Automatic annotation (TrEMBL):
Alphabetically ordered keywords of this record: DNA-binding
Molecular function terms, GO-annotated: DNA binding
Source species of the chain: Chitinophaga lutea
Protein name, UniProt field: Winged helix DNA-binding domain-containing protein
C-alpha cells in the first residue's frame, strides 16, 4: 500500500483506512509495554465490561496478563471512571481531570432531560454528592450497595434508574472513581483521595487537545465519529478539529471526509484474524461502523439489552461473534459466524486464541 501516494492525492481506499486504524489503535503493531501506555494511546477506552476491557488492553500490550491489568488499576497506573458519554472508561491518571472538566458541562446538558424523567434535579444530584463524599472520606472503598444504603439512610430515593444516575454523575463530576474489586464486587473511592490533584498539571487543555488525542489513537475518523466519541455537538467537534491546522490531515474515502494525524510510514499488513471484546474501541470508538460490516450484520451486533458480544474480525472486517466461558482449569470458546467460517479461518482463530490463553493463564478449548 502506497501511503505516501495516498497522502498526496488526499484519497484512500476503505482497506487503507482500516489498516491505518489498526495501526493507530495499537492492534496490528504495538510499541506499548504497559497497560498505561496502551490506554494513553487510545486516550480513553470504554470500560463498563471490566473483563472485556482488560483484554482490550491486553491485546495491545504483548506479554501482558489479566492479573497485570488488575495490578495496574490497583497501582493507579490507569483509572476506571465514568467519563465520556456518561460511560465508564479506562483513562491514564494524568488525563482524568482535564477530560472530566472539559466534558462536564456538555454531559450535564445532554443528560438533563433523562435525569428529569427520573425525577432528579441538580439540587438532588449535589445532595447525593455530599452524602457520597462523607461516606467515602478517609480512604474508604465501598460497593454500590453500601453507597446505596448510605443515600437511603439520608432519605434519598435510589429506586429505578436513580442509583445508576447518582453513581454516573459522581464520576463525571470527578467526585468518585472505581477502586479495586473486593472479591468479585466492584468498589468506589473518592477521586481526590485515590488520585491526589497534581498541582503541576496543565489545566489549559481544550476540545482541540482531545480531538488530537482521539485522532492519534483512532484516526482516520470523521467529525461525526469524534463528536459521538466525546459526546460533543457536531459544530463544536468540527471547530476543534479545524483548529488543529497542520497537526492533522484531511483525506477522503468513499465520498466521506476523514481526519488523521499524519503518518510517516506504511502500516503493517492487516493482522488477519482477531478476537476482540464487544466494547473494544475498534468498534465502539466510531459513530459510523459501515467500514467494518454490512448494515444487516451490524444490526446483529447490537442486541436489545445493549450488551455487545465479543467480535471476530478478519482482515479488519467483523465476521461474527465469539463467546468465552471461564471454567476452573480451562477457557471454553465458541465462535458464532454471520454465515460460516472456512477451515482456514477456523485454524486462524485457533492460532489467535493462544494469545488470549496466555493473557488469561488458562488453556483454551473450542466447542
Amino acid at each position: 500500500m502506497d501511503i505516501g501516494s495516498a497522502m498526496k492525492t488526499d484519497v484512500m481506499t476503505a482497506k487503507e483506512i482500516i489498516a491505518l486504524r489498526l495501526l493507530n489503535q495499537f492492534i496490528s503493531h504495538s510499541p506499548a509495554k504497559t497497560a498505561r501506555e496502551a490506554v494513553l494511546q487510545l486516550c480513553a477506552m470504554q470500560g463498563q465490561d471490566y473483563a472485556g476491557t482488560k483484554w482490550s488492553i491486553g491485546l495491545r500490550v504483548p506479554g501482558l496478563t489479566d492479573e497485570a491489568v488488575d495490578d495496574a488499576l490497583a497501582a493507579k497506573e490507569i483509572i476506571r471512571i465514568s467519563s465520556l458519554r456518561g460511560t465508564i472508561h479506562f483513562i491514564a491518571p494524568e488525563d482524568v481531570r482535564w477530560i472530566g472538566r472539559l466534558i462536564q458541562p456538555r454531559m450535564i446538558s445532554a443528560f438533563a432531560s433523562v435525569f428529569k424523567s427520573y425525577g432528579l434535579d441538580e439540587t438532588q444530584i449535589r445532595k447525593s454528592h455530599d452524602v457520597i463524599r462523607k461516606t467515602l472520606e478517609g480512604g474508604k472503598q465501598l460497593s454500590r450497595d453500601e453507597l446505596k444504603a448510605a443515600l437511603e439512610k439520608k432519605k434519598i430515593d435510589t429506586s429505578g434508574h436513580r442509583m445508576n444516575s447518582f453513581i454516573s454523575r459522581a464520576g463525571t463530576d470527578l467526585v468518585i472513581c472505581c477502586a479495586p474489586r473486593r472479591g468479585k464486587e466492584f468498589t468506589y473511592a473518592l477521586l481526590d483521595e485515590w488520585l491526589p490533584v497534581d498541582k503541576k498539571a496543565n489545566n489549559e487543555e481544550t476540545l482541540s487537545t482531545l480531538a488530537l488525542r482521539y485522532l492519534s489513537g483512532h484516526g482516520p475518523a470523521t467529525v461525526q465519529d469524534f463528536a459521538y466519541w466525546c459526546g460533543e455537538t457536531l459544530t463544536a467537534a468540527k471547530a476543534a478539529i479545524l483548529a488543529l491546522g497542520n497537526e492533522v490531515e484531511k483525506i477522503t474515502a468513499g465520498g466521506k471526509e476523514y481526519w488523521m494525524k499524519p503518518v510517516t510510514a506504511s502500516p503493517p499488513s492487516t493482522p488477519g484474524m482477531l478476537l476482540l471484546p464487544g466494547f473494544d474501541e475498534y468498534y465502539t470508538g466510531y459513530a459510523d461502523r459501515s467500514l467494518l460490516a454490512r448494515e444487516a450484520e451490524l444490526k446483529k451486533l447490537t442486541p436489545p439489552n445493549g450488551i455487545l458480544q465479543p467480535i471476530v474480525v478478519n482482515n479488519g472486517k467483523i465476521k461474527g461473534n465469539w463467546k468465552r466461558t471461564v471454567k476452573k482449569n480451562t477457557l471454553q470458546l465458541e465462535a458464532i459466524p454471520f454465515t460460516s467460517f472456512s477451515d482456514t479461518q477456523k485454524k486462524a482463530m485457533t492460532k489467535r486464541s493462544k494469545d488470549f490463553s496466555r493473557f488469561m493463564g488458562l488453556p483454551v478449548e473450542w466447542i
